[in-house]
Each structure stands twice: as C-alpha cells, then as structure tokens.
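Support reply, case 0932

Customer input (verbatim):
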Amino acid sequence: MSASEAHQATRRGVLAGLLAPAAGMLLALEQAGLAIYERLKARSIELTHSQYAIPLLDQAFRKPVFTSGHLDFGKGAPSKQAIANLLRALRDGGVLKVVREGSGRRPTVYALTELVHACEGREVL
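Our regenerated output:
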C-alpha cells in the first residue's frame, strides 16, 4: 500500500468514526419523531373529529412553527373558519402552542412544541 493509499484509508477510518455517533443520533431523532407523530395523530383526531386533522398535522411536521396562512390543503380545502376551529381545538388540547398572538394584520404564530423540543434536545418554546 502506498503512502497516499494509507493516508486515504486513515481519513476514511477517521471520518467513519466521526459519522457513526451522528448517524446514531439521527436514527434516535427519527424514531422519536415517528413516535411523536403517531401520538399526536391519534390526539388530533380525538380532538377535532375532522378529515383535515391529519393533513394539518402533516403540514405542522413539515413546518413546526407556522401561521394559518402557511397551511395549504389544496383542492377541497376547508374554509378559513374551519381551519380556525381546527387550530383552536389543537391549541386547547395541547397539541399546538401559540408562540405569538395575532394582532391586527399580524397572524397568530403556532408551534408544534413537542417536535421542536425533540429536535432541539431541550425546551426552547
């Protein structure tokens, strides 16, 4: 083995050693996220009894801090009032937290705090 090949092998070994713990952390985070999703899915359906509960939760998982204006249900979307009712039910049920109350033209900001805290590894909201 040449010196260059030995150097490359050493670099690969060091890199693998550095990445292994990170991969383990990512796997644990993914598993925690899936557990949170399943728990919140059941809770969202229980609280809202709505066909839009899961699509709303899916969007909250994609963007855990959001306003109602960020929600896009596509064709057959619920009315603005229905969305407000869903958000209120999820807020009152502890699924969502209000980060900032709306005022005037400024919308209310919601957060899926359980997911944010799991990703950050600590309570941030």
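We compared this against your earlier run and they match. Two observations from our side: The mean pLDDT is 90. Helices lie at 3-48, 53-62, 80-92, 113-120. Please reopen the case if you see a mismatch on your end.
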